[in-house]
Specification:
about 425 residues; 4-stranded mixed beta sheet
Length: about 425
């Protein structure tokens, strides 16, 4: 049977089409490999200033990305809408080992610039709740996916959640699933070289949400981050703070290894592990302290000091900084230096088991948000153990001039709420002999 000219032509076109397809796939594979190399080379470039060694070279195949948001949920009081685990939209986060510690933090979009440095120092699972009003949502999502594009550690280890107030709903909210099932939006991707500067420039619009009649839901955001943190231990930290180097690895060795033989399981379940908090004058130090020896050098030069010492010394005093700084514990395995009793208005940073009480979401803006949760830990029977070499640092001295004008009013309102909260604890824990007043 002879082939006609038409059949030969069709066969030739098929061969050419297959050949072109192979070339296309080869080019895509080459571009993907080049992209990964560019991302890895730029993964540690988290400095706010452009580094001379910066090697961000990633070029996006598209300037916009279409995002299908997950189904939204409401918080307990029905006043905020939550999109859990936006990371799944982009790519799968590295599989979790339950016997790990998740660092939990929260921020508005202007403070997302701290995430690369925080994630790089933690080197483990991180759960971030990002807050914004409705007009902020496209920009926030753009920053989230751009950060994942540009930083390998963020793409592998960070789970993002988005929270915004229902009071900000309008007809535009239909796009985000408030009234329909349509949740597909197009967001612009920011080039890696411009990303941090772009995030920093957004700070002019979100210095304090309360000025626009929207309360920043601090405790709700912490709970959102905790809800989807599936490891045995949680560590709640503010986004503009850093843990000491190796804290995660040293703590896991402490609670799982031979150094914790003196701790039986019941004791661990009723104990939280306190980390002394310091603030460092970033203008006066060559680099931020990584370990206790470096911290004590800056402490001796007054370029590092107790966190919040000028604004609220009693908020941290009970950690006993004089005792901790006098301990010559610079090397060896992490351990418990001493235990302390709860004191009024104390708000330490700590690592705990994942099943400790959640934060009370009624506390918003400034005042009593962490104090209330530590109060409940005390009433519920938890004990406080201060770790000997681990600490956290705030980047910059906290000055009174930095606080917004409504701070005192917010603090007064939250104190009234705290009195109500404490009365409720007496009903919640009727057998407890502890109190917080």
């Amino acid at each position: 049977m002879r082939c006609t000219l038409m059949q030969y032509t069709i066969c030739a076109l098929v061969v050419i089409l297959v050949f072109l397809q192979l070339i296309h796939l080869t080019m895509i594979s080459w571009l993907d490999n080049r992209t990964q190399n560019g991302l890895q080379s730029g993964a540690r470039d988290f400095s706010p200033k452009k580094s001379a060694n910066s090697s961000h070279s990633h070029q996006y195949r598209t300037k916009h990305r279409y995002i299908n948001l997950p189904a939204p949920k409401l918080n307990t009081y029905g006043s905020y809408q939550i999109f859990y685990d936006l990371s799944r939209v982009y790519s799968k986060v590295r599989p979790l080992n339950r016997r790990d510690v998740t660092l939990i933090t929260h921020c508005s979009m202007n403070n997302m610039l701290h995430l690369p440095e925080l994630v790089d120092r933690w080197k483990g699972p991180v759960s971030v709740a990002v807050f914004g009003s409705l007009p902020d949502i496209p920009t926030i999502i753009s920053y989230i996916f751009s950060l994942q594009e540009c930083y390998l550690g963020i793409r592998r280890n960070v789970t993002f959640h988005l929270v915004h107030p229902l009071s900000s709903f309008s007809k535009e909210a239909e796009v985000y699933g408030a009234k329909t099932n349509k949740r597909s939006i197009s967001v612009p991707m920011v080039h890696c070289d411009k990303l941090i500067d772009s995030i920093r420039s957004s700070s002019e619009n979100v210095r304090n949400y309360a000025q626009n009649g929207v309360s920043y839901p601090t405790n709700l955001l912490r709970n959102v981050g905790r809800t989807h943190a599936l490891t045995d231990y949680h560590f709640v930290l503010d986004v503009d703070m850093l843990p000491s180097c190796g804290l995660r690895e040293n703590f896991l060795q402490f609670v799982q290894g031979s150094s914790s033989l003196w701790l039986d399981q019941d004791m661990v379940q009723q104990m939280v592990f306190v980390l002394p908090a310091f603030e460092v004058d970033v203008r006066a130090v060559h680099r931020l302290p990584c370990n206790k020896r470096e911290l004590m050098v800056e402490f001796g030069k007054d370029t590092a000091r107790q966190f919040y010492v000028k604004q609220c010394p009693y908020c941290q005093n009970h950690t006993d900084y004089l005792r901790w700084t006098s301990l010559q514990s610079f090397t060896g395995q992490l351990g418990v230096a001493y235990t302390v009793e709860w004191k009024p208005l104390w708000e330490p940073f700590y690592i705990s088991r994942s099943d400790v009480p959640l934060y009370d979401e009624r506390f918003r803006q400034y005042g009593y948000n962490r104090i209330s949760q530590v109060c409940e830990l005390n009433v519920a029977g938890y004990n406080f153990a201060v770790l000997d070499r681990a600490f956290v640092i705030h980047k910059g001295f906290k000055e009174k001039t930095e606080f917004h004008q409504q701070k005192d009013t917010e603090n007064r309102d939250n104190r009234h709420l705290f009195l109500q909260f404490h009365a409720e604890l007496e009903t919640k824990y009727p057998e407890s002999k502890r109190h917080c007043l």
